Amino acid sequence: MPQPTFTAPDLDTFCMVDALGLTVTGQHLEPERAVLQCRVTADDPWCRACGGEGVPCGTVVRRLAHLPLGWRPTTLWVRVRRYRCRDCARVWRQDTTEAAAPRAKLSRHAVLWALKSVVIDRMSIARVAAALDCSWHTVNEAVLAAGRQLLINDPARFDGVAVIGVDEHCWRHTGRGSHYVTVIIDLTPIRDGTGPARLLDMVEGHSKKIFTTWLSARSTAFRAGVEVVAMDGFSGFKTAAAEELPEAAAVMDPFHVVALAGDALDQARQRIQRETTGHRGRSGDPLYGARKTLRTGADLLTLNQGEKLDRVFGSDEHVEVEATWSVYQKVVAAYRCGSKPAGKAMLEEVISSLRRGIPARLVELKKLGRTLNRRAVDILAYFERPGTSNGPTEAINGRLEHLRGTALGFRNLTNYITRALLDTGGFRPLLHPHLR
């Protein structure tokens, strides 16, 4: 390691106040906090009304929360000189906008540090507020305002989007009003292999109208650049995409197709359970005991699991469950097939087999067949456009659940949308240049 070059100690540089137009004139240190007394380096003696020269007439102290040094809350006591104009008697103070925004309680470095802690380090607002020794509301307002100004309001973040995913998300589970929002995800980095998916936007509600309104509000260049829309089985998203993005291909991703087949299997198992036993599943019931094994891929079954299924399917009462399980396994196998053309052919065969000739007793399979045949084009489109799964959209939904847990819940949807964008909007690389 090369020997570093040492210079004389410089408290202004170390505490990063020189970039704020300040210089440290004193310090007061305590085990739990630190106070730095500062003054403004630039004089401001000229009257802005008449241009006359002012004379000093005392000072006032402006207190600003600064970034924590050594993880100890640090406060700047900035002594601001007051001037009085000799000619018009106007009184003014030295300009401190370089150190902090007007009427702000956080220095500019403190705001950037708080934003970095939330976006990059994923800290909660409460933890950041404790580190700055400020109230939660003060830090929250500063972080959200800076995040919108520096990151979210940048129109370039919608550039280059070719693949989007859309899904609903439950943002709260209690209270009145709408509990669901529509999330729109940029899946282009996943398809191109350049990075993770990122949250593009979040809109209150879950309907065709909501998605149509969001698409129509985007620029013509954005809509023309979208090639693929990955979605679940909700027909409202399909209709909205067809109206606003007629050239884009709709893809129903594997996650939701397998989920539909899995739901049909669960419903068949529950129905047969009630018909044969007269009650819901209980411990010791064969079907109830095999509920997780039934959802396991056939190629992943252990010897014990295989024997358990053999015992379940050995009963004539469970033949309808076995038929539904067989279709579920074929759907899973089609997506796990290493060859896309072969997987597509396998799934085409499954969809075709569910088109007609299904016994009336297999109500779950008949319902599944209607859904798969109605969306067959969208389902099979996945095999022609790999990398367009809505799985990353579900992963971001999981990240949003974690965000809600970290924040102990949200009551304000606007704040939640902003925090969600800062957390999963892919802003980490964009924030680093502001921290230099």
What can you tell me about this protein's structure?
By secondary structure, the protein is an alpha/beta fold. The protein has three domains: 11-151, no CATH class; 161-253 and 411-425, Nucleotidyltransferase, domain 5 (2-Layer Sandwich); 254-384. Helices cover 45% and strands 18% of the residues. The chain is built from 19 helices and ten strands. It has helices at residues 11-14, 108-119, 125-132, 136-152, 188-192, 208-217, 220-225, 235-244, 254-277, 286-289, 291-294, 303-313, 319-336, 340-353, 363-374, 376-380, 391-406, 413-424, 428-431, and strands at residues 22-29, 34-40, 54-69, 72-85, 91-93, 163-170, 180-186, 198-204, 228-231, 249-252. Strands 1, 2, 3, 4 and 5 form a five-stranded mixed sheet that branches. A five-stranded mixed sheet has the order 8-7-6-9-10, with helices on both faces. Helix 9 runs antiparallel to helix 13 (319-336) and helix 9 (254-277) runs antiparallel to helix 15 (363-374). The radius of gyration is 31 Å and the shape is elongated. The model has no long low-confidence stretch (mean pLDDT 90).
